[in-house]
Design a protein that fits this description.
Distance between the termini: 68 Å
Radius of gyration: 20 Å
Order of helices and strands: HHHHEEHEHEHEEHHHEHEEH
Low-confidence stretches: none
Largest sheet: 7 strands, mixed
Shape: globular
Strand content: 15-25%
Helix content: 25-40%
């Protein structure tokens, strides 16, 4: 006996319910596998086709079915139901107080593709709009010599971040700050500012599927063109970057709006699993040059 037939049945039910994905999985099969493995207390890397030496307990299978029904009935992201999210193979606690970790910035942090853009003596980074703290934690894991400030306007999100920082024993290196954008940083300067801001434009917000509408709108909504938070960030980021520093920014599907709002900027577009056009890097010198025009 293997788990594959049971996972397939769950996947068919999820598929028939026409759910939306993107909170850690991209399709019904992956979602079903995650759900079943979690319910059975098995690692995500388990081989679903391998023979199960000890048949799953009825209570574990019942838990999986209950989770499946809850996912379909409520359209709640599975990560919220499980109180668990994974990003770059790292586990995070998550609940409805923050968005589910999924930022593409995690890829360019983990694969070291932005390392050549960092100052040689970079020892201080900022995760702006940190939410539940996943990017700050991944940055701390990627760069063991760095101190990380993590800022969010939401006290609820920072409580989740505090749970995750403690979970990964990074209290000595990640400092949580409450406040609105860069104003929370005082006069601090950083070699790198990481920001996954609210950037969803109003039209797109009005069309969000229930799974995305279940997340805090404060962390998603970016105004008419998605650039409400990004405009003051672009205007002021250079003041908080040290010589040779850079701003690493995610804008999702808003490249057209970004380029319309900032025609004088020449960002470096970084390649991710979503292609080129959703993650960009702006060196301090480019921000200063654009501001002088």
């Amino acid at each position: 006996m293997s788990l594959a037939p049971f996972v397939a049945k769950v996947a068919r039910r999820l598929e028939a319910a026409r759910l939306s994905y993107g909170h850690g999985t991209t399709c019904a099969w992956d979602e079903a596998a995650w759900l079943v493995l979690h319910a059975l207390g098995l690692p995500l890397a388990s081989d679903l086709g391998a023979a199960v030496t000890a048949p799953p307990r009825f209570s574990a299978l019942k838990k999986a079915v209950t989770l499946m029904h809850a996912r379909i009935a409520t359209r709640t992201p599975l990560a919220y139901l499980l109180r668990e999210a994974w990003l770059q193979g790292v586990s995070f606690y998550v609940d409805e107080r923050c968005i589910v970790p999924r930022s593409l910035l995690a890829e360019v942090i983990a694969d070291a593709s932005i390392d050549p853009w960092l100052p040689a003596d970079c020892r201080h980074a900022l995760d702006l709009c940190c939410g539940g703290g996943s990017l700050a934690i991944l940055a701390a894991l990627a760069w063991p010599d760095m101190q990380i400030d993590a800022v969010d306007i939401s006290a609820d999100a920072l409580e989740v971040a505090r749970i995750n920082v403690a979970r990964h024993s990074l209290q000595a290196r990640i400092h949580l700050l409450a406040g609105d954008g860069l104003a929370a940083c005082g006069n601090a300067c950083y070699g790198l500012i990481i920001c996954n801001p609210p950037y969803v434009n109003d039209e797109s917000m009005a069309r969000l599927p229930p799974e995305y509408a279940a997340e805090p709108p404060l962390a998603l909504a970016g105004g008419a063109d998605g650039m409400d938070f990004i405009r003051p960030l672009i205007a002021n980021a250079a003041q908080h970057l040290s010589e040779g520093g850079a701003l690493l920014l995610e804008i999702g599907h808003e490249r057209e709006h970004f380029e319309a709002a900032f025609p004088h900027l020449a960002p470096v577009w970084l390649d991710t699993s979503a292609g080129i056009g959703q993650v960009l890097l702006l060196p301090r010198d480019e921000l200063l040059h654009a501001a002088s025009e």
